[in-house]
């Protein structure tokens, strides 16, 4: 059975910043909107509202974000795949961040209208802000 997901757009533009792995988490990483902080042996990645990221930081900006409205059980399969497949097959770049309670999908701002059409055609429901 096809999976139908409700997606709620989050206001504002987002950016993904890359810092050195030993960098302390900067104060600008926290604030309004969705944020995600990940550290690996090679980097510290921070996803947050674009206006908070300093211009001198290495970053990829101009992303729009949708929250996949859950909650979803950890063993529930196909949720993220059902959302990213139509976008990926259409050649759209995507960025997905998972949290304990759910997932967030990001696409470039210039691809939003096309992404919305693809998501709706795939049976997903786009909610209002």
Outline the structure in words:
The structure is a single chain. With 129 residues, the protein is α+β, with helices and mostly antiparallel strands. Helices cover 16% and strands 37% of the residues. The chain is built from two helices and seven strands. Strands 1, 2, 3, 4, 5, 6 and 7 form a seven-stranded mixed beta sheet that branches. The two termini are 28 Å apart. The mean pLDDT is 93.
Number of helices: 2
The N- and C-terminal alpha carbons lie at a distance of 28 Å
Basic shape: globular
Please outline the major beta sheet.
7 strands, mixed
- CA radius of gyration is 15 Å
Tell me roughly what share of residues is in helical segments.
10-25%
Short précis:
This protein is α+β, with helices and mostly antiparallel strands and 129 residues long.
Essential attributes:
single chain; 129 residues; alpha+beta; seven-stranded mixed β-sheet; 7 strands; 37% strand
Outline the fold blueprint.
Blueprint (H helix, E strand, L loop, with lengths): L5 E14 L16 E4 L4 E6 L8 E11 L10 H11 L4 E5 L4 E6 L3 H10 L3 E2 L3
Parallel strand pairs: 1-7
Antiparallel strand pairs: 1-3, 1-4, 2-3, 4-6, 5-6
């Amino acid at each position: 059975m096809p999976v139908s997901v409700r997606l709620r757009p989050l206001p504002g533009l987002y950016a993904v910043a890359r810092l050195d792995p030993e960098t302390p988490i900067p104060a600008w990483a926290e604030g309004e909107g969705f944020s995600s902080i990940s550290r690996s042996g090679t980097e510290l990645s921070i996803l947050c509202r674009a206006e908070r990221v300093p211009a001198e930081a290495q970053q990829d900006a101009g992303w729009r974000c949708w929250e996949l409205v859950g909650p979803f059980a950890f063993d529930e399969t196909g949720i993220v795949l059902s959302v990213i497949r139509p976008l990926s097959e259409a050649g759209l770049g995507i960025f997905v961040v998972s949290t304990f309670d759910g997932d967030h999908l990001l696409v470039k701002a210039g691809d939003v209208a096309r992404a919305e059409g693809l998501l709706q055609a795939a049976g997903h429901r786009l909610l209002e802000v």
